[in-house]
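Researcher: Following up on the earlier apo prediction. This time include the ligand. It's zinc ion, with the SMILES given after the sequence.
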Amino acid sequence: MNCAACGSTNLIEGSILDNSGSENKYFKPKDVSAFKAAFGYGVREITALGCVHCGNLQCIVNFIDEDKRNHQNFDGRQPDLLERIESE
Ligand SMILES: [Zn+2]
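Model: Understood. Below is the ligand-bound prediction.
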């Protein structure tokens, strides 16, 4: 992986901490409710990468194969989660 800002390959993997020291390591798609996310449904872990060369911080969402299938099968507006569940 290269830095999106400078192209360097000197990236360090880590996580993002909030002020309380707890890791902020999940990505919640906009169409997943806060209630479902509280139980871990529909959220995905993120990996943070810091560039040693320029200090740029970038994150990777660790999507699962099901996410890729659901989101890559459609052109245009993405159907919301309920539409996707009902179509299966
Ligand atoms: Zn960089």
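Model: The CA atoms of residues 17 and 23 lie 4 Å apart.
Researcher: Noted. I'll compare it with the apo version next.
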